[in-house]
Amino acid sequence: MAGAAATPPGVSEAVFADALNRFAGVVGAENVYSEEEDVALYRDAYSPLWDEREEKLASAAVAPASAEEVQAVARIANELRIPLYPVSTGRNLGYGGSAPVLSGSVVLDLKRMNRILDISERDATVLVEPGVSYFDLYRHIVDNGLKLWIDCPDPGWGSVIGNAMDRGGGVTTGAYRDHFGSHCGMEVVLADGDIIRTGMGAMPGANTWQQNRYGYGPWVDGIFSQSNYGIVTKMGFWLMPAPDAYLSGTIAAHRHQDVIPLIDVMNRLENIGAFTGYPQVGSPVLFQAGAGAAPEELEAQARASGQPVWTCRLQFYGGRKVNEAQWEYCQEQFAAAIPGATFQRGEEYDLPLTPEQAEALGTEKVSFGIPNLGRFSIGARSEFNDMPTSGHVWFSPILPRTGEGLLAAQKVLFEAAEQLKPYNLSVLPMPFANWQRTFIFLINFPIYRDKDANRQTREAFRKLVKICAENGLGEYRTAPAFMNDVGDTYSFNDHALRRFHERLKDAVDPNGILSAGRYGVWPRHLRT
Amino acid sequence: MRYALICLSAFAVCGAALAQGADYAPPPMSPIQPAVDPASLSDPAQRRGHEVFGKWCSACHGDAPGMPGTQALEAKYGGQIPALVEERADLTPELVEFYVRNGISVMPHFRKTEISDADLDDLSAYLTRDR
Ligand SMILES: Cc1cc2nc3c(=O)[nH]c(=O)nc-3n(C[C@H](O)[C@H](O)[C@H](O)COP(=O)(O)OP(=O)(O)OC[C@H]3O[C@@H](n4cnc5c(N)ncnc54)[C@H](O)[C@@H]3O)c2cc1C
């Protein structure tokens, strides 16, 4: 199958050729990609639709180097009704890669806009362009010896802006783990080529763009995330001042019902700031006993193996004495709420880490704000896996941050796996606490270069979306193949939220040229 | 050779930190040293290719614990050929180009805005250098 779409839908060859010529006039012919072999590089390497008729393919790509060039490209696209699909670093693997949602779109590849425009150790802020990756930002901090930490997702080559635009998450302190939530100020090019700055950026001469995120009047930043209302050309972020010391500690709980106070105490302690890092709830015996094991079985297994039923690992960033006092206080609180709870002190470091300490951390480097690619071991060939995949899509529903909520959601998934037995789902859902007030599950559906296997995966994924929604569990983010399906589940009052999104779309992008279909929001001419 | 390189990179970090008037040195990214010393490369294309490798490849194919690319090649070839692509003698420019532009398994392909054709030529020059 071809790796590129011929022309955008509804656009004649002549108009398309004219558009590409005019784009070349703006960005230079060498930054317009229309040869099939070049356009094929925009395919989503982890596409669950790989090589099928429905695979989402670009028709061309354009790579501007400045906000002015983005404006000029948007004006041409708006005039000629050429659908554009902006990506920052386009490494959204597991959620769509660099491929558009609407086949035939021209990918607006912002990777060349890769300047760190302003970074302040004193304010702990940064202003970046879309092509700046976590690796780039980290290198800049190292090269300049700045006392700043970044919060990165597992893959370090992603974009600070792109990840935030898809509302991705990381693993340091609550305020920074929510990547969209830690931004402060945006510059956005609209579909007609106009350009706006949000928050204090709207006031010429204000030097507080990266300090106050609201400015004056309606706050619009949120509508640009997981959406298709604009092209972000600059974005500010709050960074964490580098802490002096790190400590971790694990609480072990030995009865099944302990999960309820365990998570309640964990939440309270996080929300009063008694621990500062990413909390991790686990169950060693659940992994051994397998999906759906009864509470008594888990407890028996725990007794037999000398392991706890539940664990909660806490991390502390601060100074040595503060970390020590916080760990002590946390232990007291858990001990009072959970009879028989036991405690294990974990790693401790003076910071910054030495290069050798950092290198030994493997994928845990992200807990110290050090970007890496170690997590790509998921699905890769290794001594434990002789059936490497061609990637995966993530199924990632939001669930309550309570013990009851966790057990109920696990039950939903265990039963769904039973119901969907022919699909052979391997579901062992453990909660991730990237966002401070909820958990998510992250369930990996492997993708292969095998159409039948992928078709089965899509069917199973869609069924799981429905089953979860019937139980109040909604995805926080999803791959383009499933954006309509997930959008359908956010249906309060006859899909009133989607209708509102569509009204906004019609107002800010009446020709529907930007990222059509992203997160289930379609322009008028493509709505069914 | 390796030892010399550690000193070199430590100096580079300190130098930058001093320029800022600070003594703070966050750890560099892993792998902290490349498998091959760039000073051993006389050809400028190979040196540039070494840089491309450091930017785009070594975070998976480096010589450090837990590198997914290195682990995958170790499992695939069982030690018959080096798991470190930088140490292989059997690579051809066509092979390097094929994997960069097509990917394999969980390794995705790379766009030209990431690794340009010129970068790819340099990378090939580095990975197929005469040892
Ligand atoms: C092994 C593995 C582990 C992962 N772990 C994590 C993790 O820990 N946390 C996490 O969040 N994700 C994770 N991911 C998912 C994903 O790889 C990352 O979120 C990645 O950072 C997203 O790609 P990107 O940064 O290149 O964004 P991009 O691909 O550039 O952007 C994502 C989307 O946002 C929109 N967009 C981007 N930039 C703009 C712009 N300037 N204007 C308008 N719209 C824009 C586009 O629709 C684009 O498709 C993981 C993936 C894998 C394969």
Overall description:
The complex is a heterodimer of chains A (528) and B (131). With 528 residues, chain A is an alpha+beta fold. Chain A has 15 helices and 20 strands. In chain A, the strands form six sheets. In chain A, strands 5-6-10-8-9 form a five-stranded antiparallel sheet. In chain A, strands 1-2-4-3 form a four-stranded mixed sheet. Chain A has a four-stranded antiparallel sheet with strand order 13-14-12-15. In chain A, a hairpin with a 4-residue loop joins strand 5 and strand 6. The radius of gyration of chain A is 24 Å and the shape is globular. The relative contact order of chain A is 0.12. By secondary structure, chain B is mainly α. Chain B has a single domain, classed as Cytochrome Bc1 Complex, Chain D, domain 2, CATH 1.10.760. Helix content of chain B is 51%, strand content 0%. Chains A and B meet through helix 4 and helix 11 of A and helix 1, helix 2 and helix 3 of B. The structure holds flavin-adenine dinucleotide. The site of flavin-adenine dinucleotide has 33 residues of chain A, from strand 3, helix 5 and strand 10.
Please supply descriptive tags for the structure shown above.
heterodimer; A: 528 residues; alpha+beta; five-stranded antiparallel beta sheet; four-stranded mixed beta sheet; 20 strands; 32% helix; B: 131 residues; mainly alpha; Cytochrome Bc1 Complex, Chain D, domain 2; 5 helices; 51% helix; disordered N terminus; binds flavin-adenine dinucleotide
**Strand line-up of the largest beta sheet of chain A:** 5-6-10-8-9
Question: Helicity level of chain B, as a percent range?
Answer: 40-55%
**Total of DSSP H or I helical runs spanning 4+ residues of chain B:** 5
Largest sheet of chain B: none
CATH architecture of chain B: Orthogonal Bundle
Unreliable spans of chain A are none
Write down the overall mean pLDDT of chain A: 96
Number of helices of chain A: 15
What is the number of independent domains of chain B?
1
Q: What is the tally of beta strands of chain B?
A: 0
Rounded to the nearest angstrom, the distance between the terminal CA atoms of chain A is: 27 Å
Arithmetic mean of pLDDT of chain B: 85
What share of the residues of chain B does DSSP label as strand, in percent?
under 5%
Radius of gyration of chain B: 16 Å
Structural class of chain B: mainly alpha
